[in-house]
Amino acid sequence: MRRNYHLFVLLFPVIFWLICFFLLPLVSVLIYSFIERGTYGGVRWVFTLENYERLFDGLYLGILWRSVSTALVCTAICLFLGYPFAYYLARYKPKHHNILLLLVVVPFWTNFLIRTYAWILILRTEGILNNLLGAVFPNWGPLELLNTPLAVQIGLVYGYLPFMILPLYAALEQLDMSLLEAAQDLGASRWRAFWHVTVPLSLPGILAGSMLVFIPTVGAFLTPDLLGGGKVSYIGNVIERQFKTARDWPFGSALSFMLMGIVLVGTVMYFRALQQSESEVP
Amino acid sequence: MKRVLEANIGLVYLFLYVPILAVVVFSFNSGEQISVWEGFTFGWYAKLFEDAALWRACRNSLIVAGVATIIATVIGTTTALAIERYRFRFRTALTRCLYLPIIIPDIVLAIALLTFYVQTRIPVGLLSVIIAHCVFNIAYVTIVVRARLQGYDNTLEEAARDLGANEWQTFWRITFPLIAPGIIGGALLAFTLSIDDFVITFFTAGVGYTTLSVHIYSLLKFGITPKINAISTMLLANSIVFILLFLRFQGRTTTSQKQEV
After folding, report:
1. CB–CB of A235/A67 below 8 Å?
2. Is A272 buried (19+), middle (13-18) or exposed (0-12) by CB count in 10 A?
3. Which end of chain A is more exposed for a tag (fewer CB within 10 A), N or C?
């Protein structure tokens, strides 16, 4: 009895907070996504499916595809850069590997806005990169780098690379190196041992890192807004516009729900893949 | 092969740190252009002190982060205690739901809260931002405190109880001092994330309740001046201080525990 009372006291605040300020808000967007937009930016309490029908407009499907493909490319680049990085830190344990690892965590603690702004400083027409290029090749005109999809892609990789490296490192650090030696003793080449032992065993890290990169990048708003200059739209920007300038909250809500749907599909695929990878490893 | 890996390490660090260093270097640039070097000056820092709007935004950020950190730290700690100490029916479900607010994209949480505030007529001001920040901060504090509780020696509590301490005394004399570094670490993380948050604040703060991040955003959107480099450098320095503090408390975790035992 006393135990239940303690548990209740400990859990009441979090359950209250999650229900009131997380679950109910999600229900509230769901409701908004099914009502009509009013004439002057308000809403009319009439049920409609129109907001969801509009999602299948070619324009929005294109934006959706751009967001998903950009997030996938970002995840792939982060994996490509992050895997060898984490592998080196975990396998060779260089002298100051704790400090090296800390340097990866630092960006997580620094303002995302500022880290994105840093790329404006570098990529703009009269920015650092163009100045350097101009000094080396005076005949070239300045390159238009800012406000392009490339700038957005760079900014996203920059922002989320640490989220890939940390879970990869955690997975690779726990890896039992004697298994690799065993594979090589049995005649596997280093490359074969890597593909058939290291990669499958670090799969949980690969999956977790990919999730942590894909989910925030698919719904990114700030990076495309600042580095894309509003010229190229991603779902995050379209949602923002519905709430800030276009004042079409019901449609913005429907877009958010679609975004949630994508994230949910991603999460389900993640858990499936995780279970599969666990069942394959004896 | 090792050479290739080393080259990759170097490239990644350059990629991660050159942009940040560029901001710091150009905060001392005397030119009017943000990215064309002309000479050394502290002038932009001096200008920060005269900027009333900046200080108002700073004050708002500190209020939001301070209050949100206190609430989130208390709730996160009780949650971590419940999850690590008790076995109850919805334990797994709760742990999954708890981390949802930090898994879903920021913008979804932001507009969910915005529509909720409008429907329930909760005014959008600083309070609405504080509530929003608690939603994600509770999860982060829980993660940090849970980690602390996992490497924790239960026998000390049993000893205290055997010696006649009641549960309340046991908690304050034994449990709390032992997990305090975790709680402080969680609070530091929550405070930093709260100060740095932009997207959720942008949607849930009312007009006239600008925080530091929202202020920087509007500077970036409507006229970039070299002052931004100085503000950014100050914020970066602030982050470094917080990480070092965090590490200090995390580092103490194992050593002090051993000493006490």
Report:
1. yes
2. exposed
3. C
Cα-to-chain-centroid distance, residue B112: 21
Q: Which of B9, B36, B228 faces A85 most closely, judged by CB atoms?
A: B9
- Spell out the SS3 assignment of chain B: CHHHHHHHHHHHHHHHHHHHHHHHHHCCECCCCCCCCCCECCHHHHHHHCCHHHHHHHHHHHHHHHHHHHHHHHHHHHHHHHHHHCCCCCHHHHHHHHHHHHHCCHHHHHHHHHHHHHHHCCCCCHHHHHHHHHHHHHHHHHHHHHHHHHCCCCHHHHHHHHCCCCHHHHHHHHHHHHHHHHHHHHHHHHHHHHHHCCHHHHHHCCCCCCCHHHHHHHHHHCCCCCHHHHHHHHHHHHHHHHHHHHHHHHHHHHHHHHHHC
Straight-line distance from the first to the last Cα atom of chain A, in angstroms, rounded to the nearest whole number: 43
Give bridge partners of residue A35 from the DSSP assignment: A47
Mean residue pLDDT of chain A comes to 89
**3-class secondary structure, A37:** strand
Contact yes or no for B79 and A14 at CB 8 A: yes
Q: Which residue has the tokens 């709680």?
A: B183
Q: Would you call A22 an interface residue with chain B, using a CB distance cutoff of 8 Å?
A: yes
User: Around A178, how many Cα atoms within 13 Å sit in the side-chain half-sphere?
Assistant: 0
Answer yes or no: do B105 and A119 touch at CB < 8 A. Answer: no
Residue contact A128–B22, C-beta within 8 A: yes
What ipTM was predicted for this assembly? 0.89
Q: For B52-260, CATH number? A: 1.10.3720.10
Size of interface A-B (CB pairs under 8 A): 221
- Residue whose structure tokens are 């100045």: A131
Best of A17, A191, A255, A262 to disrupt the B interface (most B CBs within 10 Å) is A17
Sign of CA dihedral A70, A220, B243, B245: negative
Q: Which of A14, A28, A259 is nearest residue B119 as measured by Cβ atoms?
A: A28
Domain boundaries, chain A: 53-280
Its pTM stands at 0.90
| Pair of tokens at residue B36 | 């064309």
Return the DSSP state at A23.
Answer: I
- What residue spans define the domains of chain B? 1-41, 52-260
Q: Taking residues B29-46, report their average pLDDT.
A: 83
pLDDT digits over B205-255, tens only?
A: 988 889 999 999 999 988 788 889 999 999 999 988 998 888 888 765 444
Query: What kind of fold does domain A53-280 have according to CATH?
Result: MetI-like fold (1.10.3720)
Task: Inspect the interface and report whether the beta carbons of A219 and B107 lie closer than 8 Å.
Answer: yes
